[in-house]
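Thread: "does anyone have the structure for this chain?"

Original post by V.I.:
We have the sequence but no experimental structure in hand. Need at least a predicted one for the grant figures.
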Amino acid sequence: MSVVGFAITEIPVAFSEYVMHQHSALAYNISGNLIGTGFGTIWRFWSFKRWVFLEPEPQRTDDAAHEALV
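Reply from O.Q.:
Generated one for you, tokens below.
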């Protein structure tokens, strides 16, 4: 997931470089540090919340299992 986040971070830099033909330091800073880091952070937050830091399932007790059968 972090590798995908890194790729997402680099996509705005590549877009700025190859599509918009912006080669200045300001363009690299805006596309890489501002836009790329923002999208990468959003991706990492969502993906880690979705697949890494899961909420634990409630543990079933014998009483709860017995009540489910009744």
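V.I.: this helps a lot. The radius of gyration is 22 Å.
O.Q.: and The chain has a mean pLDDT of 88.
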